[in-house]
Amino acid sequence: MMNKRVIAAVAVMVGGSAMASLYTTSFDAGEGFTSGDLNGQNNWFAQTQWKADGAGNAYNSNGAFVRAHNTDVLGTTAIGEVMTITSVITLGAYSTPSGDIASFEENIFQQGMSHQQGVANFGYGLAAGVSYSVATGNIELRAGQGTVLSGTSVQTVGAASGLGGTTYTLTTAFTKTAANTWNVAVSLNDGVNPAWMLAYSANSALAGLDTDSDGGGILGGFQANPSSGGSAGVATAPFGSTTVSAYSLQVIPEPATLGLVAAFGGTVLFIRRRFMM
Fold first, then answer.
1. CB of 221 within 8 A of CB of 235?
2. Looking at CB atoms within 10 Å, which of 70, 102, 205, 208 has the fewest?
3. Structural domain range at position 185
4. Does the global pTM surpass 0.85?
């Protein structure tokens, strides 16, 4: 018996018009992942701090804004397109943090978009995810890169001191509504409490995301931040390394045709199955 990736990239025709492309992985040995750098494995581009363990996980060795993305499925700049990114993450152990965490170092794990596909240390234009609040000591679901125009862009999850080792499903859906404007829907689910959700409109913080100035396609990916694993500027981070045990990315060019397929509520786009060989 061996683990195999269920879907690498698929195209789904609905109503004779819209096509959805999907990439999904659980980082298993059956998919060809081995212990070592995530970069270079199965079309992943990642900074060297991201590792695969060859047993179903990717993890960061520190959190100095380290990034990773896969190029099997890429988006475009078309208005109306939806990119949905889903990760199953487990927070590292909690430690009482040092007092040197700056506001830009509060993020733990984020998912977002960039036009710099194929570059391990790409710059984010839009991002959102899980953060640590120095002011309150809480974990928050929070908008990251990008300028929020309207809507709800932060929700309190709970006291960080009690959440070390918690597993969450994080989903971010980016819908392009106009030039340099996206509606962002974010959910965080621990399988116990009602999901925490954000819904807001934002402009990109990165020149070129709107036009894909590199011309290679729009990527979706994730990053670990200094509050996960620490960095040179953080003596003691509130959390150790973040583990990613499943990941998916879906691009839908015509979301109206597909209804709520790309919405975060009932769509967990990664599937882990075991096949008898």
1. no
2. 102
3. 2-275
4. yes
Number of H helices, E strands in the chain: 1, 20
Side chain identity, residue 142:
R
Closest CA to 174 of 186, 164, 166, 163: 186
Spatial CA neighbour of 140 closest among 119, 170, 116, 117? 170
Could you read off the pLDDT tens digit of each residue along the chain, which spans 277 residues?
333 344 434 444 444 345 799 999 999 999 999 999 999 999 999 999 999 999 999 999 999 999 999 999 999 999 999 999 999 999 999 999 999 999 999 999 999 999 999 999 999 999 999 999 999 999 999 999 999 999 999 999 999 999 999 999 999 999 999 999 999 999 999 999 999 999 999 999 999 999 999 999 999 999 999 999 999 889 999 999 999 999 999 999 965 445 544 444 444 444 343 333 3
Torsion sign across C-alpha atoms 62, 66, 72, 73: positive
Residue 81 CA from chain centroid, whole number? 18
CATH assignment at residue 161: 2.60.120.200
Pair 262, 82: CB distance under 8 Å? yes
Q: For the chain, what is the domain count?
A: 1
Q: Which of 179, 219, 186 is nearest to 203 (CA)?
A: 179
